[in-house]
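ok trying again, last paste got cut off:
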Amino acid sequence: MALNGLGHAARRQADYPAAADYYRRALVIAEETGDRLGQTMAVSGLGDAARRQSDYRKASDHYQRALSLAEETGDRLGQTMALNGLDTLPAYRPTTLPRQTVTDMPWPLPRRAATDSARPMP
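nice, full thing came through this time. structure:
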């Protein structure tokens, strides 16, 4: 877990090669100890580092592996992180639908009343 944390810190400092190195080291230890959560975190981190270096194929492979690991263990947070990672990759963005920007949205944005929390917004 500490190595994953160091990977996160390196990634926040934009030192992606160092981040990937920490994540690889964390993955080795997690695999040796059977720590599936640690494996999911490390592989997802490798996906993040690869994506930040524009290696989208490698990032996709890592995110797919992280998703599989998370699904095997029922790790919903890990599944969410992997799916969010996949969603950031250009190949997974819909190209046939127009992309909505903040300037395209109605302003002011509709607010939901406290009593309407169970109903969808109009």
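cool. Confidence is low (pLDDT under 50) at residues 100-107, 109-122. The CA atoms of residues 36 and 72 lie 9 Å apart.
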